[in-house]
Specification:
alpha/beta; Rossmann fold; 6-stranded mixed beta sheet; 4-stranded antiparallel beta sheet; about 30% helix; globular; binds adenosine-5'-diphosphate; binds magnesium ion
Length: about 300
């Protein structure tokens, strides 16, 4: 099956992100003139700011479901912030608001200092989903290049940038492989490359490694932290896994069960790598105890 490029792109940004009823996904606008190496930290102090954000959805029977209540927190530019919360606490909803795909009922969301009420500049945002959303009819290179197709980047440049990005994630020799020919970890790397190829200032990650086995997941964590060290982009990493949050984040925002409220915020200053270190294990234990005190039904 081969679809026109526009259709492929629409699939990537996906109908799963649509709010109750029809709501159009904002057209991605990728600035062809954007410099390839925009690695310096953005000059805004806060990459993202949530200010008193509340949100509800309507269920199919018309009743209202309160999902987020008065949520406020910041994502300082260049930091890795993990949103940690049980299933249904509104984590994905927060990311979709950051991407401008959903609007808060109350409060506001600021991206690089701008409220997300207007069109969102997708060239500044990368989004990595829980499912890798690779198009099976495209080779790895074409899947990565897809993120550049909405702009006016030439085909040649798209391919060059996609190839370079695949090399960054260790798949320089796999550009012509189709998704079914790749392991779960490799597919995850292709999805990571696709979310990075536009050189975003902010990377939104929604439980992106939750389907990987423990060993592969650890290598993706190391890969992500290495790329973050090199590029200095801001990362918002959603997870329900306490250990994953502790391994990755500079700052953890812990949500309560639905309706999601900010239960605790913690700065994590431990040096990397953290996996298995006594300090990291102690923090994991502390957070798990806080969760047990908050709710007996932290569902994953
Ligand atoms: N578009 C929608 N319409 C109705 N309910 C929704 C919609 N999106 C999410 N929900 C509900 O809102 C709650 C929070 O969803 P979500 O943000 O996906 O939570 P999390 O990512 O923390 O698991 C869930 O109960 C989910 O079923
Ligand atoms: Mg979710």
């Amino acid at each position: 099956m081969a679809l026109a490029n526009g259709t492929d792109f629409a699939l990537l940004n996906g109908p799963q992100l649509v709010e109750n009823g029809p709501r159009l996904t904002p057209a991605p606008t990728i600035d062809a003139a954007a410099p390839l190496a925009r690695h310096a930290a953005p000059d805004h102090r806060q990459a993202l700011a949530f200010r008193h954000v509340s949100k509800h959805f309507f269920r199919d029977d018309g009743s209202s479901l309160e999902v987020l209540r008065d949520v406020s927190f910041d994502v300082p530019a260049g930091s890795v912030v993990s949103i940690l919360g049980p299933s249904g606490s509104g984590k994905s909803t927060l990311l979709n608001m950051a991407a401008g795909l959903l609007a808060p009922d109350q409060g506001k969301v600021l991206v690089l200092g701008h409220e997300t009420t207007g069109a969102v500049d997708w060239s500044r945002l990368g989004y990595m989903f829980q499912d890798d959303r690779l198009l099976p009819w495209r080779q790895a290179l074409g899947n990565v290049a897809l993120a550049l197709e909405a702009g006016s980047v030439s085909r040649q440049e798209r391919r060059e940038r996609a190839q370079a990005q695949l090399a960054v994630v260790g798949l320089g020799d796999f550009g012509s492989a189709y998704p079914h020919q790749l392991s779960g970890g490799m597919r995850s790397r292709v999805a990571l490359a696709r979310s990075l190829v536009t050189e975003p200032d902010i990377l939104l990650m929604d439980e992106p490694f939750s389907r990987l086995d423990a060993q592969t997941r650890t290598s993706m964590h190391n890969e992500l932290l290495r790329i973050h060290r090199e590029r200095g982009m801001s990362i918002v990493f959603v997870t329900h896994d306490v250990e994953e949050a502790v391994i990755l984040a500079d700052h953890i925002v812990m949500l309560s069960p639905r309706p999601g409220r900010v239960h605790t915020e913690i700065d994590v200053t431990l040096p990397h790598p953290r996996l298995g270190t006594p300090d990291a294990q102690a923090l994991v234990a502390e957070l798990r105890a806080a969760i047990a005190g908050m709710s007996a039904d932290w569902v994953i």
